[in-house]
């Protein structure tokens, strides 16, 4: 809780207290802590003199501002039509096998979360996934296994 | 006001400048369909129903956000408008449950009204795809439900919670396709910050927010709320002989239609099954039901047998002025003693003793309505939003209008969200904090020299005493950083008009009178008193504590603060009452218990009080009560204290009687009978009069409260012109000496009410609280209040919903202390002081600073006052319930 306090204060210093600072601050918290805890949102609300409900209202709209617990690495699999045709289902199968969780779940060690996402703009290199902010494209079973293994060892 | 003329549907209208087209039209009975408009709220223009056409402008204009301009030509209907409205309305219907016959808002629904006017195309509507998923109804709140499926997204609830209530429990969540009105974290309403005031439910135009109580009243009675001292005007709705609703009076200057959770939902106690219904007499240690006849005969016999000095009475701040007047008259004229007091001793006695010394009058100097025009509001020792919620709303309204808010409180209270400066002083160091601020004011020459010269005395002595309070000392003792003290001092002194608000945090100390004097010093020094929106405002606790004091429910004054020790006053009342009166001051609340314990007082007549829970060091009270020869309690419920009585008399509640309450701003307001009294309960004034008559006394032949008010008019100059006829619609503020006097909005306008007309500045020194933490009892315990309960909760805990919202006590401790003591949230602990111990659950919160813990005293299972110390203020005799030391012990598992 104290860490969140300091993080929010640092972000406020960086972005200011204006209403438009809300988005970058929330993104900053997610970048550090993977998702927005209630405490973090209350702290942001306090710093920006907004209501907590308003902060939640903003956060709940954006897919990338998670308000539920997420792992250190959030894997978002593109589910839009091109990726779907180019083997999105297989990608999900591989991920579920390797991490032993279903879509929407987080591993017990809080390291990985698998989610589906709408188009991320990599249709020409489908199928594509995002791991946190990094896109991985033209995926095959082998390529994906290698990527995930690397993350597992990090 | 500037007026503008414009043309609407061919009709010429003249309206005040600043009005919107929609407002102007509705005022003149021209209907423009609307869904998101509410007269209390800033227009948001989101429902798109109120579109109109304006000559010379393109397209449709939203009339609720467009101000009228001179010469404007407006059309509220056309084929084009109708087409657009219909399409928009059909989209709203597509997302709305089509279940009108099952809806409790059926026929009181804005959507139905708009649909009837605009019309929908059934065929098109049938083809529309329903887009919204079904949401479960949120009925977590005991008083109302939220059905998202009926919500039309007008945002009135969200804006009400923001603009009216300042709580912000709601906002739009999941915006876009899935938008819903959501609490923080999409949690059930009960788990959100919602304060259950019900303001959003009142304003919801459809059936999305609805009250759970669905019985409709057959008639309504206008009266005054019986909880705190704000005195909100309410309409009680009655069906059969039961109260089924309560709503705020929008025309009332006090609350402007707004209510808190207690005022809106806290009426259930009136018809509660536990109400006392017949007199009870204790025989062989148990209470037996009896008759008024038997009870009166025993009381008359016992009261006649005691000597004057062996008798004492406690009157009640919950009763009407008329009740209080008769009970003090009975005590003085029949029993022959001034041993009468009431719970004001435990709350604002220092206000009376302090402000009478410095200003001449111990009441709020301004009106509640004046807060909204203040530029600076300084709240010290008052958890305003919890204890006086509607005054809290006035302060929030002032803030929205640009006022600066200063909060000084040992705890981070809710009002801090609105504060520009928050000073978290250590409990009991208020004199230092205030004197420190005054030192800054003097050093920076911000004092009002003219005011000091012409309107005050004692300035030089006061200045001398100020030298001890330099910033370093102040910071060291209070724990408030220097910068904040300077900022607060500058704001208060320069950003005028400044209004100061205080309550129990100032008074409930062994140096409570000094605290009050420090407050009045600050106001006098800066000339911030005796002006509109600027003054000293002690917020009175009980609904009629002001009236109980006014009516002489105090041992040192007759009604109207006429001193019992002044021969002229004694003679005056002897003449009016036709008996010889006691020339000496009587004993105070705290002293009466001491004297009972010593055996000097043998009979006690206690009306509407519960000292076992409310008095400091309650074990002392219990010992005393057990020592009484004869103890009569008159109440509406069997309280913890009533169990000690020999006779318990059933009294009528506020909803069952006529009379007047005087609120914290000195406004005498009419209380009206809404329901027939339960069982054989009787008005308090009737019971006391009956005892008096049976004891052979003259002058108690009242037939109605009106008769009593007539007598009050004659003997109490400040109430001289306040008659029932005059306060039929709106209350009058005393002083109101004659029947053509308009009442007094703010006090001390031209001169202070002290004999020489000057306000007095007092030199002060810092006195530490009596019991401070040490190695044996390392935590400081302070007491506070919950929004959901009132005082000892005799009434509020009879209301099921309030019990659901706040059902048990918590000891609030800081996370650092909790860690050190190795206790966790929700754990049961024993809290021990030098006087007693209680078992209570822990709540870990940063609301309280390190080293300080706090408890309310609402719960009889956790009698907090067994812990508190009965160290009393030498002048006001108030016990120090705000500071004592405790230790927390883990429970054996």
Keywords:
heterodimer; A: 154 residues; alpha+beta; Glutaredoxin; 2 domains; four-stranded mixed beta sheet; B: 893 residues; alpha/beta; Ubiquitin-like (UB roll); Rossmann fold; Dimethylsulfoxide Reductase, domain 2; seven-stranded mixed beta sheet; six-stranded mixed beta sheet; 29 helices; 37 strands
Q: Give the strand tally of chain B.
A: 37
Identify the overall geometry of chain A.
elongated
Which structural class do you get from the secondary structure elements of chain A?
alpha+beta
Number of helices of chain B: 29
Widest sheet, order of strands of chain A? 2-1-3-4
Basic shape of chain B: globular
Strand content of chain B: 15-25%
Q: State the order of secondary-structure elements of chain A, H for helix, E for strand.
A: HHHHEHHEEEH
By DSSP, the count of extended strands of chain A is 4
- Largest pleated sheet of chain A: 4 strands, mixed
CATH C-level class of the domain at 301-347 and 544-660 and 672-709 in chain B is Alpha Beta
Give me the CATH fold name of the largest domain in chain A. Answer: Glutaredoxin
In the predicted model, the low-confidence regions of chain A spanning at least 5 consecutive residues are none
Would you tell me the overall average pLDDT of chain A?
91
Strand content of chain A: 5-15%
Q: Count of DSSP helices of chain A?
A: 7
CATH architecture of the domain at 301-347 and 544-660 and 672-709 in chain B: 3-Layer(aba) Sandwich
Q: What would you call the quaternary organization?
A: heterodimer
